[in-house]
Amino acid sequence: MNMEMGVWILLLIWCLGVQGTFAFELEKPQYAVVHEESDFEVRLYREMTWMSASPVQEVSFEKVTRQGFHRLFQFIQGANLNFSRIPMTAPVLTSIVPGAGPFESSGYIVRFYLPTKFQDSPPTPLPELKLYPDHWDSHCVAVRKFSGFAKDENIVKEAASLATSLSKSPWADISFDRGENYAYSIAQYNSPFKIFGRLNEVWVNITGSVSDQCQPLLTLLKSAS
């Protein structure tokens, strides 16, 4: 059995197990919406910890997301030094490392949001999985939602649409937080076996004051009025 087929089998097992008892929603990162437009919104996320697959230089977003999730799925199924089984959460986040695309994109990091129980003390993954805990401070994120499946041919278009929207907003000159090691992220909330009503998002960190609810600089607000 090749690795890609193994990934799909693992996903099917997870999907059947979860949907058979889906009387609850998967845990998600907590945030507050602080600004809303017709085609994007700005969220203030609380601090949080992800388990991340080490960066991969790969042409295909779809391929690297499957491969990264395969490693993360092994981790949550007990491939860690604590032998802990970890509940599934959402979204699965694929961050695009800076390069030449929208927001200067290239390469990928696939991330799993750790449930509240494991936020402060994540289980240590087995070394061969090449995973690491990644703590994020509270920060501001611009988000564009889109439906259907996140694929190689549409994620760049969706990211470019968010970039265009931000260029016309008060965050025009400060939209990309260059202090991060990635350009933008694609958040996927559904299993690959859900056909209708799918939710995906483009995330890009913005430089706004967390203490002031992610608002941009006052001078930019004045210039946009």
From TrEMBL:
Keywords: Signal. Residues 1-23 form the signal peptide. Gene3D superfamilies: Regulatory factor, effector binding domain. Belongs to the HEBP family. This is SOUL heme-binding protein.
